[in-house]
Amino acid sequence: NILDVQDFVDRDSVRIMVMEWIDGYDLRQLMNPDWLTLIQQLAVRERWEHINRVIVTFGPQQTRFKAGVAVAIVRDCLAGLAALHRQRIVHGDIKPANIMLKRTGNAKLIDMGSAYELDDPPPNRVCTPAYAAPEVLDGASCTPRSDLASLGYVLIELLSGRPCFSSDTGLRELLEEKRRLPQRLHELLPPEVACNSHLTNLCKRFIATDPTRRFPSAEAAELLED
User: Fold this and answer.
1) Catalytic-residue membership of 93
2) What b/e string do you get for 75-92 counting C-beta neighbours within 10 Å, with b at 16 or more?
3) Bridge partners of 107?
4) Closest CA to 21 of 3, 39, 7, 9
5) Average pLDDT of 24-47?
6) Could you tell me the pTM of the whole model?
7) Alpha carbon of 44 to those of 2, 27, 51, 188, 223: distances in Å?
8) Closest CA to 3 of 95, 101, 149
């Protein structure tokens, strides 16, 4: 569930990574409602009804993924994060554009440009503020639990069919929105999801403002019975 880097070349200060070809699309592309409109036009009625009922449907602002599909994508991402974290590496920039869904249905984490070893953090870090954990925006280092918070924001966006945060907000306002998000889940999530306490509790555990209240690891998020 991680993009395979097959070779690395450093020649005369020109650096090249040779990576596997992934036959699929990133989640940011798949969230574009124009794609879903095209599918609706091309699919026969029975096929469209199945897609709309089981896989994806139109959300308030973008394509909304059905709960089973969204959770399946997140489970694949958890497997990828678990592998990284076991090697004491954090991804550092989990977001829809950095998760690709293959035609086989498997999800892969891509874009390791922000990843680093926990034992050797870089002096300057790059992240996408809308998907960064609150403590990262506050100036703390990214940790495995920070990656889990970012994945939680992605999960909520998949389930709700709209971004979790305002696009034109400043850093301080964004940080405050992240702290209020657990209390706003019932406003964001559709009724069919909001009524499922297991799923809403899963989301809240991912995005808890206090890192110690999140899952202790990617494996724990996958395996804990509750």
Assistant:
1) yes
2) ebbbbbbbebbeeebbbb
3) 101
4) 3
5) 96
6) 0.94
7) 35, 24, 11, 31, 39
8) 101
pLDDT above 90: residue 27 = yes
User: What pLDDT score does 126 carry?
Assistant: 82
Structure tokens at 110: 């891509």
Residues 142-158 have a mean pLDDT of 97
If you search the block for the tokens 């991804």, which residue do you land on? 91
Q: Which of 4, 10, 34, 93 is catalytic?
A: 93
Joined together, the tokens standing for residue 121 give 């953090």
What is the sign, positive or negative, of the torsion defined by CA atoms of 46, 48, 52, 58? Answer: negative
